[in-house]
Fold TetR/AcrR family transcriptional regulator.
Amino acid sequence: MTGSQRRDQLIEVGRSLFAERGYEATSIEEIAQRALVSKPVVYEHFGGKEGLYAVVVDREMADLLQRITSSLSAHRSRERVEQVTLAFLTYIEECTDGFRILVRDSPADARSGTYSSLLNDATTQVEHLLASDFSRRGMETEFAGLYAQALVGMVSVTAQWWLDERQPPKEIVAAHLVNLCWNGLMHLEKKPQLEAERSREDPEGESAASAG
């Protein structure tokens, strides 16, 4: 193998082992053994296990973020929600090992990006889109960040659940997520309140409603 071919091979071997066993449980010895090389070869290319892990995570982060960004950069509002949800689920389907690595805890001193930082990037993009939409609808834009956190969190947590379930198919999962997201967004109250707050402000109205 050439140097670049050997490097790519070690990245794929490391990716597979980190997904299968986790960072802490994976050793340089195992990586070298599975790649059929000596340990010094791994050190030569990456300086150690942390260096290899950082390269693996950076590649996965770049891949997933590119998919999310592309899905948000075109289409109308509802299509954006659909496309970003499908992009997330498709990444899990096509890059299962990569997603398992991203959602696991990174080593404490890892210099590479983390899954939470990737979600923060995605949330920032969604916040800008929501703020623009809220402004057009005469709603307060100061809460766009809160709604962005809720939407990205909902898709992310559901995606992690689907990682192991794989049922129903991703298109159905995406359709139900979009149903909840979109229909919720389209019927937002401009000044939402908890029911307890409504009751305190209008006790007579509550009594009349109960009587009716």
User: Anything to note?
Assistant: Residues 16 and 156 are 22 Å apart (CA to CA). The chain has eleven helices and no strands. The mean pLDDT is 85. The two ends are 81 Å apart (CA to CA).
